[in-house]
Amino acid sequence: WQCFRALCCKGPPPPRPEYDLVCIGLTGSGKTSLLSQLCSESPENIVSTTGFSIKAVPFQNAILNIKELGGADNIRKYWSRYYQGSQGVIFVLDSASSEDDLETARNELHSALQHPQLCTLPFLILANHQDKPAARSIQEV
């Protein structure tokens, strides 16, 4: 009876803390692929995000609710509307992109770092596409 009681009366596990993050970067930087990988989804048929998407990424001790914002020119000007409530930022950049795109990414990163709703938050800057021949080193980026 003790053993059965311990199994059936234990109750649900305690809830894991949830954290709200925003994921930004230019189109093609790899934001959607990153989130698909974190969610163990198939990398096939990944389509560039138009607007935004939200994914809950479960880890053993926490759940990350990641709001991915599309990186197209006409969408970036609306990024700041989605910053409220964020507790951290993932900035993804294509380390194999052109100099012009890298400069645009740098400007967007600096803008995000200075934004009042983000400037005090932790930032993860992910230099993606390190496997490509044209990839720059972390120092170059």
From TrEMBL:
SUPFAM superfamilies: P-loop containing nucleoside triphosphate hydrolases
Residues binding Mg(2+): 32, 49
Molecular function terms from GO: GTP binding; GTPase activity; metal ion binding
Transmembrane segments: none
Repeat as UniProt keyword: no
Residues that bind GTP: 25-32, 71, 128-131
Magnesium recorded as keyword: yes
Keywords assigned: GTP-binding, Magnesium, Metal-binding, Nucleotide-binding
SMART domains in UniProt: ARF
Annotated family: Belongs to the small GTPase superfamily. Arf family.
Listed name of the protein: ADP-ribosylation factor-like protein 15
